[in-house]
Each structure stands twice: as structure tokens, then as C-alpha cells.
Amino acid sequence: MKQKTRGLTERMDARAWFDVFVVLTALILYAVAWPTLHLTHAVSPGAQPFIAALAAFPILLVRVNPALGWAISAGSALLIALAIPHQPNNDLPFQVVQVIVLIALLFAVGLRAPMQIVAVAWGATSLLFGATMPGEGEAFANAAWGWPIALAAVVLFALLVRWLVLSRRELVRQEEENELERARRAILEEKARIARDLHDVVAHHMSLVVVQAQTAPYRVEGVTPAARAEFESIGATAREALNEIRGMLGVLRSDGQLPEHAPQPKAEDVLTLFDGAKRAGVTIDWTVEGELGSVPETTGLALYRIAQESLSNASRHAPGAPVRVEIVCGMQLHLRVVNGPGATPARPIGNGGHGIAGMRARALAVGGEVTADASPDGGFEVRARLPLGPAQAEAAEVVAPPTVP
């Protein structure tokens, strides 16, 4: 039995406890009003329970409908004051219990009811108390002015509590909205990370397929017209697939992307990238000065993606052109990718790409910068400067950045 009682009390919330308190208060007020009613008013014994109930029980509506409870209490108070004579030794028109209930309900109206109802309840209660309370001459004038002022203080205090509660609820609501916004932003950032990796990986290899198909007739001897047409078909299909991939990725990409921290390619993996481009038919040579193994992971990832995107751009816009890559790892990490004019005319692969913007975003994420511009000979040049951490900078061999004519 004790365990059941303990479980019930644990499950009860604040509203349930408040309802219990209101019921107990109503019973206590009723227990006071009924036995004392004959001392204040000339009421028959049979009517006393009903008159006492009108005085005490309207407080039961304090949470459910305080305006209705106030109306019942005020109406019964006026009825008692006008219709039931009070005892000679009692000057109050109705019981003290009814005064307490009326003030409590007026306070509840100020907490929950619309402002129009609050104003009506305050005015009607002030008029009821001011007109029915005993007093003559100056005493009556004091009562007529004193009750409205006292009841106004009650209403103002209720409104103050009401505004504080509403402000607290608004603050909680704002915090919930901020939490939802943070979750939504995290989802968008994850989409942006996926979009960036898809663009860097898929677009790079698709571009190499296009380049291989487009330059095969010039690299391979004895290509028949049928084989040339087949290569043209492969290139066209790959370009179409690349355009569709970019269209889908455009939905996922967004501004303000954050750097990734998942396992990704490192700085030394650029050598594998260069080997793969060379096997794909790109005329590429590279030089590396310094130790790439000491480059931090985030900087190494940015280096890899920028080099990857630079090779993809060179393959797309200058097919067949030689590409020169220079990497210097000193106090800072410098990357230079230069390609000459294309040996064959470049074919359009769509518009609205994200290559250069993505490279700049990656460099900015690690505190570096990227510049990309056309070279005087008709080619293109990409320069990247990526800072290294203090420990890596001290461990790396200090060399000057490559000079570019």
C-alpha cells in the first residue's frame, strides 16, 4: 500500500498538486463559513450549507475557469449583501471567507484572462466592495477610494507575475527553436560536406574519363573512324553524366561550409593523385620540396582537394595541355599548379561549377588562401598558400616559396 501511494505521488505533476491544494482550501473555507454563517447573517439552518457553498466553493474554478468562478462569487456576494440581513453585531455585508475567495479569484483572472475581462473584474469588484462595505461620510469615501486602489494593487501584481511567466515561456520557446535551428544547420553542414566530397572525387574522375576519351585519337596511333566515333560517344556520355551529377550536387551545396574532420586523404596522398592523372593520359610532372608527412591532417586534406580540383579544371578546360605542379613545405605550404593552352579545343562541360569557389573555401577553412587566374600564354595557374601549425613549421625544412615567372 505504501509503495502504491509513493508511486502515485511521484507521478503527480505540479498541476495535480495545485488541484489538491485548491480542493483542500475550498473544504477548509467551507468548514469555516458554514458554522460561522449564523453569527454574521440571519439565515435559517436549512439554507446555511447552500449560502456557505456560494461563499467558498467558487474557488474550485480558480484554475479551470477563473473568470466564471469570479462571476459566481461576485454575483452571490451581491445577492447576499442585498437579500440576506446581517446580524446586529456584524457590519460586513458578506462573510470574510467570501472576501478572500473574491480576491483570490480576481488575482487568478489577472493571471489568465484577457485584459478586457481583467478590467471588468477589477471595476466590478471595486464597485461591489466600495458600495456595500459599511461606513458613512468620510469613512464611506475612504472605503469607496480605498478598495479600488487595494484591488488595483492585487491586479497589477497578478499582471506582473503573468508577464514574467510569459517571458519565461517565450525564452524556453526561443531556446527550443534555437536547438531545432542548430540541428537543421548540422544537417545542412553534413549535406555540404557530402556534396563537397562528391564533387571533388566523382567530378575529378569523370573529368579524367572525358579527357581520355577526347584525347585518345591523338595519343593512340591507328585509330579507325569507328573507334574515333566510339571515343566521341564515350566522351559525350561522360560529359552528360558529369553535368547531371553537378546538378544534383548543387542542391546539397550551401554557403558557410565547415571543414571536415572525418578520415580523409592526407598531404602525401597527392603523389598517388598525380600518378593516377598521369596514367589517365594527362601530361603532368611535379616537384615536392619538404616533408609532406609533417603536414597536419586538415591542411593535408585541403592540399589534396585543391590539387585534385586544379587537375580536374586543367583536364576539362585545356585537354592535352602539359601540367606542372610545384609543392613546397616550409614555414607554410605552397602549391602551384600551372597548365598551358589546350592541345585540342575544350568542349563545354556545363556551367555553374563550384571548383574555384570550393578551393577557396577549403583554403579559408584552414587559414590559407587561393588565387586562380589565366596565364599570359593562354593557360591557367592556381596558387595556394596554406599555413602550418607551429610544431610542423619548426620540424619542416625552411625553404623559400617557389618563384613564378
UniProtKB/TrEMBL annotation:
The chain crosses the membrane at residues 16-37, 43-61, 68-86, 92-110, 117-133, 145-165. Residues 301-389 form the Histidine kinase/HSP90-like ATPase domain. The keyword Phosphoprotein applies. Residues 190-255 form the Signal transduction histidine kinase subgroup 3 dimerisation and phosphoacceptor domain. It catalyses: ATP + protein L-histidine = ADP + protein N-phospho-L-histidine. Its EC number is 2.7.13.3. The keyword Phosphoprotein applies. InterPro entries: HATPase_C_sf, HATPase_dom, Sensor_HK_TwoCompSys, Sig_transdc_His_kin_sub3_dim/P. Residues 166-193 form a coiled coil. Keywords: ATP-binding, Coiled coil, Kinase, Membrane, Nucleotide-binding, Phosphoprotein, Transferase, Transmembrane, Transmembrane helix, Two-component regulatory system. GO terms for molecular function: kinase activity. This is histidine kinase. It comes from Nocardia xishanensis.
